[in-house]
Design brief:
Distance between the termini: 4 Å
Oligomer: single chain
Largest sheet: 7 strands, mixed
CATH superfamily of the largest domain: FAD/NAD(P)-binding domain
Helix content: 25-40%
CATH architecture of the largest domain: 3-Layer(bba) Sandwich
Strand content: 15-25%
Strand order of the largest sheet: 7-6-15-16-17-14-18
């Protein structure tokens, strides 16, 4: 039995903790804030509750596997019979383009996506299908030899190494693939929304479009933040020691390996294994290994509580342009009210509600509750960016850490330890760390 200390109580830390505890290790999870979850939490005010961070996930099998491998299935935790608890969404999102055309992007169906693009303009369906289908082999390669199989940072599987060594970038790939800007805009959306420059994103990272088509988007009834509560309960079931309100100063390394973590409260916590589930730049023992990387900064976020007659929008609507706005109706609201969350990217020189009004979505007179969060405030509250490492070219994937690190006994998990943001990648990373550490 190893003494495992996990630094950080976001989704990556929670997933790692329950997996390692189920393997028989003595696990302590240390979180700087007073609550667990990181970005996987909620915000509440005046009877409204919003998802603070992600409100949907791809590759639902990753979450299902997490609960099965650490205890009871997710559906059983929710008291459901023959149901895993996750709810599929009919579509991934709605895209509204500058030319006033609209695309409702289905998920989980190749045929439905082809039909949607064909309805946008004849011929686009076949172009989109060819573009997405090319990523099938990329996903199969990465899944089998990178996301689900332990590997050494200095000795990647040969085919994975060749893929990562390609100089092709997503910006050029999209220009070659589409003459129409609209499908290119859809394919680029997740990267633009996460704050990346397409000229710095490797082409293979565009595999996310295949994941959306193949698996669709899923959520949890009541809000995705409910996973935080379920995982927190699983920590107690598995006997994990949880220390909240306990910032970690550093990972203590002696004789070339990790032996403890030092905290601002309670001194050192002895460890045989340390899992860094926060931005490794925050740990002096790891900072020098990631000095060439930068975090992808969150968007400007506004949570709205609305009353009265408001537009009936899908669960996610993207208004493309500069600025780009994302509208996410959802969450919990008092009777007769609606909860929205807005994300803004680009030139936000004015209030997002005025930008919405110009797009004929005017809810300024309907606002009864509002919370504005700047990128700096979000990073401070969450202890880092849930959007992970900023793409700065093909070398970025090798310059970040995870699941192993150069320090013996130290592993990395979370958005900063994956080649892209999203709960699927983070969950797969947690499974890899559990495999690397192994059973007690």
């Amino acid at each position: 039995m190893a003494r495992v200390v996990i630094v950080g109580g976001g989704y990556g830390g929670l997933a790692s903790a329950v997996r390692l505890a189920k393997l028989g290790h003595d696990v302590t999870l240390v979180e700087a804030s007073e609550t667990l979850g990181g970005a996987l939490t909620s915000v509440s005010e005046d009877g409204f509750t919003w998802d603070a961070g992600p409100d949907a996930l791809l590759v639902p099998a990753v979450v299902r596997d997490l609960f099965r491998k650490s205890g009871r299935p997710l559906g059983s935790e929710l008291g459901l019979e023959g149901d895993d608890g996750l709810a599929p969404r009919e579509m991934v999102r709605e895209h509204r383009f500058a030319d006033k055309t609209v695309l409702r992007l289905p998920g989980g169906s190749r045929r439905a996506q082809v039909e949607a693009f064909e309805g946008l303009s004849p011929g686009l369906g076949a172009q989109w299908d060819e573009y997405v289908h090319d990523y099938e082999e990329v996903w199969d390669l990465l899944r089998r030899h990178y996301f689900e199989e332990p590997w050494q940072p200095g000795a990647l599987p040969k085919d994975v190494g060749r893929l990562f060594g390609s100089r092709d970038v997503l910006y050029k790939h999209l220009k070659r693939s589409f003459r129409d800007d609209r499908p290119a805009t859809v394919a680029a959306h997740t990267f633009v929304a996460d704050g990346h420059d397409l000229r710095n994103v490797p082409t293979w990272a565009g595999v996310v479009t295949y994941l959306e088509q193949c698996f669709g988007a899923w959520t949890l009834p009541g809000g995705l933040h409910g996973l935080r509560d379920l995982l927190a309960a699983r920590l107690a079931t598995r006997g994990v020691t949880v220390l909240v309100g306990t910032p970690v100063r550093d990972i203590e390394v002696r004789g070339g390996r990790a032996v403890a973590v030092s905290t601002t409260r309670g001194g050192e916590i002895p460890a045989d294994v340390v899992v860094c589930a926060v931005d490794p730049r925050r740990m002096p023992a790891l900072a020098s290994y990631v000095e060439r990387t930068m975090p992808a900064i969150p968007p400007v976020v506004t949570h709205l509580g609305l009353t009265g007659d408001v537009p009936d929008l899908p669960h996610e609507t993207v208004l493309h342009g500069d600025p780009m706005l994302v509208i996410r109706p959802g969450g919990q609201a008092p009777d007769g009210c609606t909860a929205w969350t807005l994300h803004g990217r680009g030139r936000l020189a004015e209030d997002m509600l005025r930008v919405l009004a110009r797009a004929k979505i005017d809810v300024r007179d309907n606002v009864v509750a509002r919370i504005d969060r700047s990128p700096r405030e979000l990073v401070t509250d969450w202890g880092g960016s849930p959007h992970g490492v900023l793409w700065q070219g093909r070398h970025t994937v090798r310059q970040r850490l995870g699941p192993r690190t150069p320090v013996e006994g130290v592993y990395a998990v979370g958005a900063h330890a994956t080649p892209g943001a999203g709960m699927a990648y983070v969950g797969l990373g947690a499974a890899l760390v559990a495999t690397e550490v192994g059973p007690a």
